[in-house]
Amino acid sequence: MTKQHPAWSPYDNNGGTCVAIAGADYCVTAADTRMSTGYSILSRDYSKIIKLADKCVMASSGFQADVKALQKLLAARHLIYQHQHNKQMSCPAMGQLLSNTLYYKRFFPYYSFNVLGGLDNEGKGCVYTYDAVGSYERVGYSSQGSGSTLIMPFLDNQLKSPSPLLLPAQDAVTPLSEAEAVDLVKTCFASATERDIYTGDKLEIVVLNKDGIHREYMELRKD
Amino acid sequence: MESIQAKQGLVGPNDPIQRTQLPYVTGTSVVALKYKDGILMAADMGGSYGSTIRYKSVERIKPIGKHSLLGASGEISDFQELLRNLDELILYDNMWDDGNSLGPKELHSYLTRVMYNRRNKFDPLWNSLVLGGVKNGQKYLGMVSMIGVNFEDSHVATGFGNHLARPILRDEWHENLSYEDGVKLLEKCMRVLLYRDRSAVNKLQIAKITEEGTTISQPYALKTFWGFTAFQNPTAGAEGSW
Amino acid sequence: MSNSAIDVPSRGGFSFDLCRRNDMLAKKGVNLPSFRKTGTTIVGLIFQDGVILGADTRATEGPIVCDKNCEKIHYMAPNIYCCGAGTAADTEAVTDMVSSQLQLHRYHTGRESRVVTALTLLKKHLFNYQGYVQAALVLGGVDCTGPHLHTIYPHGSTDTLPFATMGSGSLAAMAMFESKYKEGLTKDEGIQLVVDAICSGIFNDLGSGSNVDVCVITKGHKEYLRNHLLPNPRTFVNAKGYSFPKKTEVLLTKITPLRERVEVVEGGDAMEE
Questions:
Q1: pLDDT tens per residue across span B84-99
Q2: pLDDT grade, residue B3 (50/70/90)?
Q3: CA distance C133 to chain B (A)
């Protein structure tokens, strides 16, 4: 018989789903608050969304320890930026910074799946979607994490965005009103929770618009 | 000087130092919860060498500074080294003599970074840590895993406790638990762990931390029950069967 | 190569050729299809006048829930039921097979089936297949010798217990049993404890979820309480609903018939050897 000895892996997957939708003058970012490992729940109330700047929030799922390290790094970089430039970083700038930060760890990646939601310099909603090593794109809407495979096709169906190949370039923002977008996000999560075991407990929705930032919560299934 | 030495292994000057590649002596679950006046934490005193329970008087809950309690499961030597580091940290913090001191939140944050940095070096501290404390009327209870996963909650449990104790805690925990009810709840969890976790031993300590300070109980045993009639003659009705 | 090995009639037993092939394929990166597993919480307990079985109703395939309301308490005989965890196909097949053998046995003897008979048939089958039939079972029933509760592991070992749990939620459920079970529970207390144990699995184990099924077996009587509790209603429904456009976008309406490239001749010459 071979000797058993415990192995360890530097990575874990703590589950969770993130969605962001950009509109003409708003951006809705949402994530569930379940943190799990394997088949067990670690916490039912862990926020995956952090505010990086006045008009920029990030929702992240994946390996919590990496996500936390990433959040701390971005917060520190943003503090330096404020000291140097005496202003808040714009969302597109934060988008590029996040990409560079992820790529910097290309060969020992941050196992984190992020969406960045915010308002750009014109006050338009913007969403950036990433993979774990920093490839990114500005889009009208996106979903990341364990339930993304269930949510993304539904968003594609409801919010079909214009092809990025069209000339002249068309706005990627969705035509929905803010309230409609929030309802759409709630539906997405209620449905993903039905079928994805890593999504559930509670939904946290962050809405950014010209009035500022606003958070709301909705209960999800707890099984 | 110390850093040069630290970079060298015991085997040879060019070998990278490696401590815990696999754990030797380990402790099992720690269970902790918030109650009305502070934090309660429970852990048994077993130290397992593989599947042998080798030590039976290992203290796995220790006070850190004035406001915090640290409980650990996993490799005992790593925990004890960590305690030495934390002692130094608290000492140097004290030497500022500025009236400030590290609270549970700061210590938890520090431990989070220690664990995560060690995993980044592929040389983890083989522990799951529970940090609880009270400072300025604020209760704090958090957990850190071997690879740096961390969170705060109103009740936490490491290892097997996550599977066996937390379902009970989620059912029965509430914000206004009295000290007596908190201890009863922890004992209930520890009893289930004793029944179902093979590396648990019936000798445990329960620690309390409040604004007033820390108390760690003397080791004691729980009452157990093995008298179900179904255990006496399982094959009644079909003699000689299974 | 000699043919003798093929000519000798098969003497039964297990061939591991395919296992070796599968290991080889797995090493080359070929993934076998995933099966529907009931990452499950199933439980049973003995109360003052019989046995109560319980199960959740979630079936999963990896991280995805493939059945939100499946049945995991299987019929074995009028007085015997069996909860199944593991690969859904295996638990269903093995319980069906044994229940039909029990039926035949009843026709033959004209007596009520005994729980030990079911237990023996199940464990024999599972032991024969060395754990490859992935069924973890909680078997309960009441026969002429009284109430019985057993667990059966995939390799064929069995246990006789006053209370039992199985599946991925077994620890969460066992936490409830170990802290609340007493001997001589009444029927209502027994059902409540089974519901608590299943709910503990449903809410603490991600492999278990949805609803609670309960089956109460007493002397000469049984009650199958399908969906006894529905603790997980949907949390949000958009009042306006959603429309899903039926059409795919029409890109081209002109039809260009393809020119025939090959002429097919019916009844041509026979092929050469």
A1: 999 999 999 999 999 9
A2: very low
A3: 21
- Which long-range contacts (C-beta less than 8 Å, at least 24 apart) are formed by B233-238? B234/C160, B234/C161, B235/C160, B236/C145, B236/C146, B237/C116, B237/C143, B237/C145, B237/C146, B237/C148, B238/C114, B238/C116, B238/C145
Looking up residue C147, the CATH number of its domain turns out to be: 3.60.20.10
Residue B20 bears catalytic tag: yes
Contact call for residues C189 and C160 (beta carbons, < 8 A): no
For A16-25, B133-142, C19-28, which range has the lowest pLDDT when averaged over its residues?
A: C19-28
pLDDT one-digit tens code per residue, C146-164: 999 999 999 999 999 999 9
- Respond yes or no on whether the N-terminal peptide bond of residue A168 is cis (omega within 30° of 0): yes
Let me know if residue C13 belongs to a domain.
Answer: no
Q: Which of C39, C234, C235 sits opposite A39 (nearest CB)?
A: C39
Q: What is the pLDDT of residue A188?
A: 96
Separation between Cα atoms, residue A30 and residue A57, nearest integer Å? 10
Exposure string of B81-101, with b = 16+ CB inside 10 Å and e = fewer, is: ebeeebeebbeeeeeeeeeee
Number of domains in chain C: 1
CATH number for B211: 3.60.20.10
> What token pair was written down for B68?
């915090």
Mutate to test the interface with A, among B122, B149, B170 (most CBs of A within 10 A): B149
Measured CB to CB, residues of chain B less than 8 Å from chain A are: 22-23, 112, 115-116, 119-120, 122, 124, 126, 143, 145-153, 162-163, 166
In a domain, B216, yes or no: yes
Could you tell me which chain C residue has the CA closest to the CA of B188? Answer: C179
How many angstroms away from the CA of C82 is the closest CA of chain B? 17
What pLDDT does residue C28 have? 84
State how far the Cα of B146 lies from the Cα of B123, in Å rounded to an integer: 10
Is the confidence at residue A167, as pLDDT, over 50?
Answer: yes
Interface contact flag, A65 B116, Cβ < 8 Å: yes
Question: Rounded to two decimals, what is the model's pTM?
Answer: 0.88
In a domain, B79, yes or no: no
Cβ contact, residue pair C120, B234, below 8 Å: no
Contact C232 A157 (CB under 8 A): no
Task: Output the pLDDT for position B124.
Answer: 94
In a domain, C102, yes or no: yes
Contacts of A48 (CB under 8 A, 6+ apart): A16, A18, A31, A32, A33, A59, A60, A61, A67, A204
